[in-house]
Design goal:
This protein is an alpha/beta fold and 186 residues long. It is built from five helices and ten strands.
């Protein structure tokens, strides 16, 4: 029987900003394990796979009883790694769970899946939350989202968008940050 909902965690050992990130110990466990276990607790997710191009990550995942799949080292992004695993496994819906989210709330995964499960015409889903901290708004590592009146994302940027008028406090502006979680209909 085919998998209906698959969660894939792209985990690159050779991260340019923090090499070895998936295996960094947090509370005596590698980060990838925290993410894997959180994704596994999402009620709608049937299968979780770590997509990696590094044997060290694959061995660590196998060591805690998880499932890892080796992917091409030529992929330019984690999304490409997720797509490779999704093609190989076949699933109705694929959730791309970022490998550096050890505090992932499984209920957030359910929120992501809700529109995909409710309406067949929805092909992609992602999440954002209200941003109220000016430091985060200016931080290029925080992805900002501009939304349409109906809540759909219009565009994403690492720049501080939308830019309020000088006299308008940030709290009065509809500023959102992207949560980096994606759901796709395969």
């Amino acid at each position: 029987m085919a998998v209906r909902i698959l969660a894939v965690i792209p985990a690159r050992y050779g991260s340019s900003r923090l090499p070895g990130k998936p295996l960094l110990e947090i509370g005596g466990r590698p980060m990838v394990r925290w993410v894997y276990e959180a994704a596994s607790r999402a009620p709608s997710v049937e299968r979780v796979v770590v997509a990696t191009d590094d044997e060290r990550v694959a061995q660590a995942v196998a060591g805690f009883g998880g499932e890892a799949m080796m992917t091409s080292p030529a992929h330019p992004s984690g999304t490409d790694r997720v797509a490779e695993v999704a093609r190989r496994i076949g699933a109705e819906i694929v959730v791309n769970v970022q490998g550096d989210e050890p505090l992932l709330d499984p209920h957030v995964v359910e929120q992501l899946l809700a529109p995909l499960l409710a309406e067949a015409a929805v092909v992609m889903s992602t999440l954002c939350t209200r941003l109220r901290d000016e430091g985060e708004w200016r931080d290029p590592n925080v992805v900002k989202v501009v939304r349409a009146a109906n809540g759909d994302a219009l565009y994403f940027s690492r720049a501080p968008i939308p830019h309020p008028r000088e006299a308008t406090p940030l709290a009065a502006c509809p500023v959102y940050k992207h949560l980096g979680l994606y759901g796709y209909r395969a």
